[in-house]
Design brief:
Chains A, B: Belongs to the GST superfamily. Zeta family. Chains A, B: This is Maleylpyruvate isomerase. 2 copies of one chain form a homodimer. With 212 residues, chain A is an alpha+beta fold. Chain A has 2 domains: 78 residues, Glutaredoxin, CATH 3.40.30.10; 115 residues, Glutathione S-transferase Yfyf (Class Pi), Chain A, domain 2 (Up-down Bundle). Chain A has a 4-stranded mixed β-sheet, with helices on one face. In chain A, α1 crosses α8. The relative contact order of chain A is 0.15. The model of chain A has no long low-confidence stretch (mean pLDDT 97). The interface between A and B is large, with 55 and 55 residues.
Chain lengths: 212, 212
């Protein structure tokens, strides 16, 4: 397997956690997003969407972190990253998608660059945009997590799932952008529990070979 | 089952298609997004994220259209909305997520409202934003679809999957916003094939009881 990675990408961070939890290793190729290497013809031939991560395996190139992680979970089922019961799977997937659809894409690097370059928004306005969507998303996520009887040490019971895999990079980035997290005690508790695990630690942006 | 729906929501449109393809019916409750009913305490008690759709079933409330559709596919497997092989499942999921993560959330109503209300962007700027992200996403999706040997009448072979279920509402909305689609012949061909199916037609926004 070969992974296309960037230390600071939230989506690549998710995949790094999943690979490590599964005990899988992959050859790593780094795509420098701030140097816009994701838009170079070489990389668009790998992933036409121009995003990381991508995973080459079985003669195919897989894209979209959650699709890749579901693939890994189907082909390397131990430890499981989704529960068994369909209602519980939907719960875990809905938490993962709340981050992956409703918080992260609105705040990623290409959006912030577009706010600056096309709409002329200064740094304060861009930081305000970022904080607004983190607050909007975390308010909802906190209510979901605080109100469900399936939550344990992690988003579902006492072992990490794809929900925690999505939550931790989002919390990491919110901290990096100095977003206040006081109002989200359940999110903070779960993220702290997950970040105490070696697999989550090994995937942290600052520990990657391409970290700056 | 009970669905929380809004005729113009792309995500609700996806769920309507899936329910109809599966031959399932659900009691329908309409949440008027332009009147901000999604932010009323009554609805936040149903879905703390303040988004549609949501589905009540089995004593639980499911959120996030893709999590709900995967649940329906697991509990009502015929007709299947995902292929059997893990690599093919990843392909179909990656197309669905390319729409659901990288195009739709950046352009949905709450983002356009925030561009207007918090950043003072006029209608021309908001329409430019919309068109930019459709073009960016469809350029990548077209290259993915045009370059993969698994594409048939639909995104995977000759029967609809969750990829087509996500693609059609996005094409519908791009047309409504007058985005040029000339450069995406494969997307247009697949969307036309899907929209010829009764299940996709029955789910169209204009045919819903709450349509305006």
């Amino acid at each position: 397997m070969k992974i296309y990675d960037y230390f600071r990408s939230s989506a690549a961070y998710r995949l790094r956690i999943a690979l490590t939890l599964k005990g899988l290793s992959a050859e790593r190729h780094f795509i420098h997003l701030r140097r816009r290497e994701q838009s170079a013809p070489d990389y668009l031939a790998v992933n036409p969407m121009g995003l990381v991560p991508a995973l080459e395996t079985g003669g195919r190139t897989l894209t979209q972190s959650l699709a890749i992680i579901e693939y890994l979970d189907e082909t390397h089922p131990d430890p499981a990253l989704l529960p068994h019961d369909p209602l519980d799977r939907a719960w875990v997937r809905s938490l993962a998608l709340a981050v992956a659809c409703d918080i992260h894409p609105v705040n990623n690097l290409r959006i912030l660059n577009h706010l600056r370059d096309a709409l002329g928004q200064d740094e304060a306005a861009r930081n305000g945009w970022y904080a607004h969507w983190v607050a909007e998303g975390f308010r909802g996520l906190e209510a979901m997590l605080a109100g469900d009887d399936r939550v344990g040490a992690f988003c579902f019971g006492d072992a990490p799932t794809i929900a925690d895999i999505c939550l931790v990079p989002q919390v990491f980035n919110a901290e990096r952008m100095n977003c206040p997290l006081d109002d989200y005690p359940t999110i903070r508790r779960i993220a702290a529990a997950a970040r105490a695990l070696p697999a989550f630690q090994a995937a942290e942006p600052g520990r990657q070979p391409d970290a700056e």
